[in-house]
Design a protein that fits this description.
Blueprint lengths: L1 E4 L3 E9 L2 H9 L11 H12 L10 E9 H8 L7 E3 L5 E4 L6 E5 L18 E3 L7 E4 L3 H24 L4 H4 L8 E9 H11 L6 H17 L1 H9 L6
Antiparallel strand pairs: 1-2, 2-3, 3-9, 4-5, 6-9, 7-8
Helix pairs in contact: 1-2, 2-8, 6-7, 7-8
Length: about 240
């Protein structure tokens, strides 16, 4: 399953291990019991696990993605590598994140090894700076054409400089530093269902950067195809009870 994102980006599911039943099996092994199908009883168990943050059963199913995204999006998503190893007490109550990386894998294309291509993210709409949020944006900028022209001029100058440096014999690892954050990169990212549920939690929120939101939404759309019950009950856990 592959979802196109932005102008040149994508999120593709390369492989997965497990299903909604994996979370149930992982929880019930505590009582030396299991399950063969997702019935209403299993749905209630997943709901209970999510609501009470008994999250270890969500760590047995795995997903392997290939991302293609602008560099600045990749660096925002990289933050989820830190905090991917949660800590729990003896009763499996969530205690926080250790900041480890042992439960996930991230391998990215390297500008040290390959010539970087002139493939950059081109925003369709330029947003103005928010007056109330230092890191956020507001509505569309008034002068779209001038902003677009300035941006393209900057991209052309940066990539021309990169080519000139390479022609002079400058090493790829050094020449690449002249390139802007909007250049596209690719990486393969493997992690547990819980890890990617956390990505969806944070990166589909309205206050996340719009471009990164689109990748969070794509991850969610893939998860719902393969883990519909786990995703549903995970998202419901924060909804107010009526």
């Amino acid at each position: 399953m592959k979802i196109e994102v932005l102008d040149h980006g994508s999120v593709e599911l390369l492989d997965k291990m497990g299903s909604d039943l994996t979370t149930v099996e992982s929880a019930r092994v505590s009582f030396l019991k299991g399950a063969t199908d997702i019935t209403e009883r299993e749905v209630k168990l997943i709901k209970y696990l999510a609501e009470h943050e008994h999250t270890s059963p969500f760590r047995h199913a795995m997903l392997m993605f290939r991302f293609k995204a602008p560099l600045f999006v990749a660096r925002q998503l990289w933050k989820h590598i830190v905090g991917i190893s949660p800590e729990f007490d003896l009763e499996d109550r969530f205690q926080g994140f250790s900041g480890g990386v042992k439960d996930t894998g991230w391998n990215e294309a390297s500008g040290r090894y390959v010539e970087l291509q002139d493939e950059f993210y081109i925003p369709a709409i330029w947003r103005s700076q928010s007056s109330s949020n230092k890191q956020g944006s507001a509505g569309p900028l008034a002068d779209q054409a001038v902003a677009a022209a300035a941006y393209r001029q900057g991209l052309e100058a940066a990539y021309t400089a990169y080519q000139q440096l390479r022609e002079l014999g400058v090493a790829k690892e050094q020449a690449r530093v002249v390139l802007p954050q909007s250049i596209y990169t690719q990486w393969i990212w493997t992690g547990s269902l819980q890890a990617f549920l956390h990505v969806v939690d944070l990166r589909t929120k309205p206050d996340a950067q719009w471009e990164t939101q689109q990748f969070g939404i794509a991850v969610r759309d893939i998860i719902v195809e393969h883990f519909p019950v786990c995703l549903s009950k995970w998202e419901q856990r924060k909804q107010p009870k009526v």
